[in-house]
Write a structure and sequence with these properties.
single chain, 473 residues, alpha/beta, Beta-Lactamase, Rossmann fold, 3 domains, nine-stranded mixed sheet, six-stranded antiparallel sheet, 15 strands, ATP hydrolysis activity, P-loop_NTPase, CpaF family protein
Length: 473
């Protein structure tokens, strides 16, 4: 593959220095010494990641990188596939190594090629983490610190960026891919990768120690309630009741803290939505993975540079009501849109679902009350509570516990009103063993054996007997 000599390194390419003039013998000697240092450090052979991080911050790699990008038309290259570009970059790297008499092995040259391709097509040095199925979160805290979450626990990786400008460049490329911008004038953004992974970016001066990128990875596995029961996230009886609740078109609120698995559970429950139903999803950054054929996905839009043109979740919920939805699924309720969600649930859009940040089902109700009051402060509290009691049928509480495992700790249904108080009853509760304190949390998923209030609704769908068997009434 041939490349033009046009020096076209615009926003598509990482920021690089202009191509250098032929180096003096002193510079060449310095590069040779750096190359030999890397060769020496191979005994004993370090991990590939460690070698990669040694090289990407070395003067030798900077020279190779500058030479590659000055010898190719990057704007044209990024329109090709990764594999189409690889062959040309491999040849350029080999030529530079031979010309400068650098002491790099073929394996190390391939690592350099991968780094250059990651800069052009991926997310830089953290690209391998996106392919690692054991990683659920990637947390970049400036150029020198990259953490990942594996099995619910944080780990520091040896991966590093070249400098803060490298982190900013990757963040801007992620945001630009979905039509959003992040810079000094707009230093925060929510975005997503091509595979659906959710990304949050905060740039200096808000981030004091360098640009921060937080990636919540898109799960490649199709998580189901049955699989979650096998993993110990819930009991088999819980899974059956949640399946019946989704099939019976209950309005469900999934409550929990950050990173507790609310969206994963919402995805798993959505598998039981009838394929004949029209579903509309509303999110800030689209990450829901619904499998139904008739799904309309809506995404919010931030204000433009003039401070206008923004579309928030409340606008989308109101518009969704005019789109003939059977169900409305809101990725997260956290503001004034709560009022419109309750209105939708109360006007025939049964089976709607959403998530909310709260520590208990009672807290979820209190937060919902507060958010409705944000939208309409003239409504009396008693009226708001009656709307909640009428609209929401079930609250599922999820929690990420100290052993890193996400568990459903409580399945509660709203039973109605007693005076001005919304009453609830627990169908399932996770009770941990207080006598066993170690790395693994032990406990049992206890069933209350209470007849659910929605049993009549389950009977309408022919599921009452299955519900009674699961509840063990």
């Amino acid at each position: 593959m041939s490349f033009g000599l046009k020096r076209d390194i615009e926003s598509h390419a990482p920021q690089v220095q202009p191509a250098e003039k032929p180096r003096t013998s002193e510079a060449s000697a310095a590069i040779a010494r750096l190359s030999r240092d890397i060769e020496v450090r191979r005994e004993p052979a370090p991990a590939a990641a460690a070698v990669s991080e040694t090289m990407i911050r070395s003067e030798a790699f900077r020279v190779i990188r500058t030479g590659v990008f000055s010898s190719m038309n990057v704007s044209a290259a990024v329109l090709k596939t990764r594999e189409e570009v690889r062959e040309g970059i491999e040849q350029i790297v080999a030529d530079i190594v031979e010309r400068e008499r650098m002491n790099f092995t073929l394996a190390e040259q391939m690592l350099m090629v991968d780094e250059l391709l990651n800069d052009m097509f991926g997310v830089g040095p953290i690209e391998p983490l996106l392919a690692d199925d054991t990683v659920t979160d990637i947390l970049v805290n400036g150029p020198d610190q990259v953490y990942v979450e594996r099995h619910g626990r944080l780990e520091l990786t040896p991966l590093q960026f070249r400098d803060n400008a490298h982190v900013v460049n990757v963040a801007q490329r992620i945001a630009a891919a979905i039509g959003r911008r992040v810079d000094e004038s707009s230093p925060m953004v929510d975005a997503r990768l091509a595979d659906g992974s959710r990304v949050n970016v905060v740039l200096p001066p808000l981030a004091i120690h360098g640009a921060c990128i937080a990636i919540r990875k898109f799960s490649k596995r199709n998580i189901t309630l049955a699989r979650m029961a096998q993993q110990g996230n819930m009991s088999a009886e819980m899974a059956r009741v949640l399946k019946i609740a989704a099939t019976s078109r209950l309005n469900i609120l999934i409550s929990g803290g950050t990173g507790s698995g609310k969206t994963t559970l919402l995805n798993a429950m959505s598998h039981f939505i009838d394929e004949r139903e029209r579903v509309i999803t509303i999110e800030d950054a689209a990450e829901l993975q619904l499998q139904q054929p008739h799904v309309v996905s809506l995404e919010t839009r931030p204000d433009n540079t003039e401070g206008t043109g923004g579309v928030d979740q409340r606008d989308l919920v109101r518009n969704a009501l005019r789109m003939r939805p059977d169900r409305i699924i809101l990725g997260e309720t956290r503001g004034a849109e709560a009022f419109d969600v309750l209105q939708a649930m109360n006007t025939g859009h049964d089976g709607s679902m959403t998530t909310i940040h709260a520590n208990t089902p009672r807290d979820a109700i209190a937060r919902l009350e507060s958010m409705v009051m944000m939208a309409n402060g003239n409504l009396p509290l008693a009226s708001i509570r009656r709307q909640i009691a009428s609209a929401v049928h079930m609250i599922v509480q999820v929690e990420r516990m100290r052993d890193g495992v996400r568990r459903i700790t409580r399945v509660s249904e709203i039973a109605g009103m007693e005076g001005d108080i919304v009453t609830t009853q627990d169908l399932f509760v996770f009770r941990y063993d207080t006598t066993s304190y170690n790395d693994e949390v032990k406990g049992t998923f206890d069933c209350s054996a209470i007849r659910p209030v929605f049993a009549g609704r389950a009977a309408y769908y022919g599921l009452e007997d299955a519900l009674m068997e699961a509840i063990k009434v």
